[in-house]
Amino acid sequence: MSQYVIDNEVEVLDQGNDTGGGEFEREKVPASKLKGWKSFVGMYAGEHAAGTEFMIGPLFLTAGVSAFDLIVGLLIGNLLAVLSWRFLTSEVAVKNRLTLYYQLEKIAGRKLVIGYNLANGILFCFLAGSMITVSATAVGIPFNLEMPKLTDTMPNSGMWVAIVVVIGVVISLIASKGYETVSKAANWMSPIIVLAFFVSGIVALNQLGVDSFDKFWGIWGEGGEPFKGQTKFTFWHVVIWSWFANGAMHIGMSDLSVFRFAKSANSGWATAAGMYVGHYMAWIAAALLYAVYLQSPEAMTYLNNGEAPPVAPGPLAYNAIGALGIIAVVLAGWTTANPTIYRAGLAFQGIMPKLSTFWVTIIAGTVATIAGLFPAFAMKLLGFVALYGFILSPFGAIIVFEHFFAEKFGVTKNYAEVAGIKFNTSVFLAWLISFGLFYFISVQYDVFLSFVTLPAWLLCGVLYLVFSKYTQKATSKK
């Protein structure tokens, strides 16, 4: 889309609905506030070369992944994620320039969206809470803090609680300043984090005695049995999981709230900075750090006792690059938690539109901090991310299928707004049937949840069009 078209088509709507935060939560983003691709490169590099990477990289090792499955699988899965952002999320975002929550309200109705926003906001808070946990493992090193184990669910000390609370307060205050501050924070922090991942990976290779590609490949080799309580990952587990690790953001359309600020849909390509710096280089570097730890006497003791050695990002990074590792892990947790809490705040604002962005973000930050007290969210991150994407992604199909196919099917766009209804049954039934069917398949036949995310997404979109054509036609006859 050219700048001329943007300047003439992007108009500020419902000016009186701005809640005072300047975030355009219930109106289109005006042309004067649009941002170039560089802003998104910094944000995505910062968000995805961040706290989750320190957890996910090691967790691949606990899943017994092979070298080919990890290196090639991540290459393909991350490409599919970038394509989803570019050709789905950013395309819809620059056309409508609305948050996910307001766009969905226009389609589904306010009462239905309240439930969605609540679920979305809480899940975002849990994800942000796991990143607060990650930062706490670094802050706790000078205090000789006992680190949570892979199987821990509850806080293990008063010092742990105190550190998590302090970190949560700081992160919440940064996020409450709005998108501008979140973006600037990511741009400042991301180069430090990326450098730390790269350096720590090089140091870990040296500690492992790797001086050839064959030795590098041999770290994972043909794979092995997963640690106790972990799922065995194959090539397709890696491809599909890495594609949908951020499924709620791209095919689930949560990042409409981010890309509505983009001058062009081509800004969607900026997500490659996050995928290939963060979800490729950083995941592999973090896995190397854990590989070093697995050779230590402490880890051997755990393994000999039939237990999984702990995955604590702070000590892993500190062992490789010292104080820089502590700083990197703290910042990494922040750069993931900040935009995640910001998104959660927008979700809660869909429920409480009269509250300012500041206060809904503080509420989100409080929930995230409470979640951060419980290590289970971080230690079970692979499973949690899969569940999170599976629950929320089908709602994105509603928006995508309406955007691209409504006219061909003779379906009225933004039907809830046009018809003045508060609960669009077509949306609810489409999600309920697709979610229920494929969740049942996952549980009944022990199918990895990420494998059924795309089928559930496609079915939800198709059912929405079919149900809408029927219900809208029936309504028009009354």
Automatic annotation (TrEMBL):
Keywords: Membrane, Transmembrane, Transmembrane helix. InterPro entries: CodB (IPR030191). One of its GO terms (molecular function) is cytosine transmembrane transporter activity. The chain crosses the membrane at residues 67-88, 118-145, 157-176, 188-208, 233-252, 273-296, 316-337, 358-379, 385-406, 418-441, 447-467. GO terms for cellular component: plasma membrane. It comes from the Bacteria. This is Purine-cytosine permease. It comes from Flammeovirga pacifica. The lineage of its organism: Bacteria, Pseudomonadati, Bacteroidota, Cytophagia, Cytophagales.
